[in-house]
Write a structure and sequence with these properties.
Number of helices: 5
Largest sheet: 7 strands, mixed
Shape: globular
Structural class: alpha+beta
Strand order of the largest sheet: 1-2-3-4-5-7-6
Radius of gyration: 16 Å
Helix content: 25-40%
Distance between the termini: 33 Å
Length: 190
């Protein structure tokens, strides 16, 4: 098995991991934290995918994709926090004024799970942010301890996976997802 993580630039690869099975379905496309609330509610069905395609054409950093033996296997959303709703989020605190990048979504396709893809995605997202000049990367994973997590709601990742990648707890949050508190984890890249 060969896993390669690289910036998300190909729409079809992004669609394979975060897009819907049916083109008319209304799924996140990993836009919910990227868009203002009104626009996020307005974009429905195929319009969400079209919006992602436009972002990719414009060169805006969306995240990274893991490819296993050349096939799209996973996704991690990473971008400057200032370009996300985390810049204004009242439940996720700002530790300081450093222009950090946020890593807020990790998704591994079902046929690729259990192979360490999520760990490769965290490392790849950090490498991408570092290459773009990010001074630090923040994540907002679930602090679930040993409790099981519904995979649908595990998209922010798990605290232990970020600790394994060298992130440390920077702050508590008041955000709770699927019954688990989220914690602000940070990796300093300076």
């Amino acid at each position: 098995m060969t896993v390669e993580v690289r910036p998300a630039v190909e729409f079809e690869d992004v669609r394979a991991v975060v897009g819907p099975k049916s083109p008319q379905a209304n799924v996140c496309w990993c836009l919910s934290y990227r868009l203002p609330s009104a626009l996020n509610r307005e974009l429905r069905g195929p319009a969400r995918g079209e919006y992602v395609a436009g972002l990719l054409r414009s060169g805006i950093p969306l995240g990274v994709l893991a490819h296993e033996d050349g096939e799209p296997a996973g996704w991690a959303a990473v971008a400057p926090r200032a370009d996300t709703s985390f810049a204004r989020n009242r439940k996720i605190p700002h530790v300081d004024d450093l222009p950090v990048w946020s890593l807020w979504c990790i998704r591994v396709r079902p046929s690729h799970r259990g192979k360490g893809i999520s760990h490769a995605l965290i490392e790849g997202a950090v490498a991408y942010a570092r290459a773009q000049g990010a001074p630090a990367v923040e994540a907002y994973p679930l602090d679930n301890g040993d409790a099981r997590v519904d995979l649908t709601m595990a998209y922010p990742g798990l605290r232990k996976n970020f600790e394994r990648a060298g992130f440390t707890r920077a702050a508590d949050t008041t955000s709770v997802l699927s019954g688990h508190p989220r914690v602000l984890m940070r990796l300093d890249l300076r």
